[in-house]
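Worked example 2:
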Amino acid sequence: MTTTGETASDTTRFWVGASTLGVLGSPARGIRSLEIDGAGRATIGEPVDVGPNPMFLAVSPATGVLGIVHELADGLVSTWTIEGDTVAPFGRAGATGAADPCHLAFAESGDLLFAANYSGGRLSVHPVGPDVTADAALAVDFTGTGPNAARQQMPHPHQAVIDSARGRLLVPDLGTDRVRVLGLAGLPAALDHDLASDIVLHAGAGPRHLVVAGDFAITANELDRTASVLDLVVGREVAWSSIGEDVEPRGLGCSAIRLTRTGIVLVGDRDADALRALRFDAGARTLELVATVPTGGRHPRDLELTYDERFALVADQGSDSIAVIALAGGVPTEVVATLETPAPACLARMP
């Protein structure tokens, strides 16, 4: 392992997903473990080969199993047992039945995986178990378009998020300016989707990722560089605001989004190559831009927090680097370290 400084006891552990294709950034040789101690010092593991293009990872809080989507024209899902700084097969890889799966989430029980297939317009459901083949057991194929002819010619589901309080799955659909709402009560036999339950965003928003904040969700909108506040109880968008008007849009916009315990929303900005911070006021239903910190890299695709929220990590895929950024009360202040690793696309925090 490569270490930058000594590891302290209050360490947060991650797994880094990456592109092995070299389309953006250098081709990676697999996924890697990563530890950040209480002083922001890093220990990063050697690459582990888990198959082609392991772009997004998730770890089940219930079982500790690692799930991976392989972002390919013929999408795949695989599951793994974590063994220190390496992994071993848990189940057998299975097909999503659609193109370019880009995100996945475990059911709370840990026995199912939900995969968002960006180019395939599909949300697929996969069984998880020892030696179980993870072929899609259920799927919902979305329909619709948006006003951006170049980017919204079809549905583009980009994420799957469990809304535990309401027993639902929320799926931001960049292609149709909707957050798809799917009921989980019928699982494992059925996944319920009623078009009337979808939350409609303003035209041209292009919702990419979201976080749940009690009875609200906040979306990072890729296409128009905004963040939206959604009322999950009534099922509608109640506000939206720019994440920053200080840069010329390059058509990349928002990427990942996280919510701190202090109510600060962190958003990756690929137009500015920066981490943005917005303060969320649930009572007023407003978002206020409070900080912008350039990451020092290119194309911040994903971000995650340490357990103690002293640091945010930003995966800059285009520059083969991960920025470690200090937080004060949830607000980013400065880059304190930069780690070199090929084409990082995902930062999956261990439970």
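The domain at 50-200 is CATH 2.130.10.10 (Methylamine Dehydrogenase; Chain H). The radius of gyration is 19 Å.
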